[in-house]
């Protein structure tokens, strides 16, 4: 049975993006260690999963990109979950139109490497709400938005996670992953957690220094996976 990994950037106050869908933080892609962590994760995927909006954003960038991220995004199979998308022109892409739980169940039963989901917010929220995520890999950004598109919304019950691993990079970002079972590959660096049957006394403590710096350049979702 394949695991489903939700991998995304997130602000320290829990938002995937600002209300205008921008990501007003440094994505860390200029840092070699962060780049390697992302590439290792992306290349290890058996399939990339995403909602319609994220698919349209990525499909407009990766097919013609010369970025190091382009090859795994173009070559590894992709599944876009949408009931309205008529066709998917990005090679190696198919559309899943059925019930989300049933579609994910079928994908998990297929042989191959883990499934990695990237968003957008509505898709990520649905995966969490239905209990379909086995592992969270969250690149926690040292930025607070105050309002935006949250990762968790309308959960039927509190979701308790067990910390497995945490790493902070020179950019200030802390990759954080919540997994239910298997460990991450040793080349991956992240804060990792697994589902916990009951609340933990202390999951993690992260300290950030406050600066007057603000990132005014909003990078598109497809800037990094």
What would you say this structure looks like, in words?
This protein has 225 residues and is of the alpha/beta class. It has a single domain, classed as Dihydrofolate Reductase, subunit A (3-Layer(aba) Sandwich). 20% of the residues lie in helices and 23% in strands. The protein contains five helices and eleven strands. A nine-stranded mixed sheet has the order 5-4-3-6-1-7-10-11-9. It is globular and about 35 Å long. The protein starts with a strand and ends in a 30-residue tail after the last strand.
Considering the chains and any ligands shown, give keywords for the structure.
225 residues; alpha/beta; Dihydrofolate Reductase, subunit A; 9-stranded mixed β-sheet; two-stranded antiparallel sheet; 11 strands; globular
Summarize the structure.
With 225 residues, the protein is of the alpha/beta class. 20% of the residues lie in helices and 23% in strands.
Mean pLDDT: 78
Largest sheet: 9 strands, mixed
Number of strands: 11
Q: How many domains in all?
A: 1
Order of helices and strands: EEHEHHEEHEHEEEEE
Q: Strand fraction band? A: 15-25%
Given the C-alpha coordinates, what overall shape results?
Answer: globular
CATH topology call = Dihydrofolate Reductase, subunit A
Count of helical stretches: 5
Give the structural class. Answer: alpha/beta
> Portion of residues in helices?
10-25%
Biggest sheet strand order reads 5-4-3-6-1-7-10-11-9
Rg, rounded, reads: 17 Å
- CATH secondary-structure class: Alpha Beta
- The CATH homologous superfamily corresponds to Dihydrofolate Reductase, subunit A
């Amino acid at each position: 049975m394949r695991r489903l990994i939700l991998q995304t950037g997130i602000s320290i106050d829990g938002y995937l993006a600002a209300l205008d869908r921008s990501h007003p933080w440094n994505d860390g892609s200029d840092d070699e260690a962060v780049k390697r962590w992302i590439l290792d994760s992306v290349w290890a995927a058996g399939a990339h999963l995403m909602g319609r909006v994220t698919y349209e954003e990525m499909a407009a960038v990766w097919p013609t990109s010369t970025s190091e991220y382009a090859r795994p995004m173009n070559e590894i199979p992709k599944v876009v979950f949408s009931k309205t998308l008529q066709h998917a022109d990005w090679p190696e892409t198919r559309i899943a139109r059925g019930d989300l739980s049933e579609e994910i169940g079928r994908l998990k039963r297929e042989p191959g490497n883990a499934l990695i989901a990237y968003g957008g917010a509505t898709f990520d929220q649905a995966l969490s709400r239905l209990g379909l995520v086995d592992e969270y890999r969250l690149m926690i950004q040292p930025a607070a938005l105050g309002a935006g598109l949250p990762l968790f919304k309308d959960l039927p019950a509190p979701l308790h996670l067990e910390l497995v691993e945490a790493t902070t990079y020179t950019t200030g970002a802390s990759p954080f992953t919540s997994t239910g079972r298997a460990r991450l590959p040793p080349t991956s660096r992240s804060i990792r957690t697994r589902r916990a049957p009951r609340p933990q006394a202390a999951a993690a403590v992260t300290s950030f220094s406050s600066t007057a710096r603000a990132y005014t350049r909003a990078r598109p979702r497809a800037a990094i996976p």
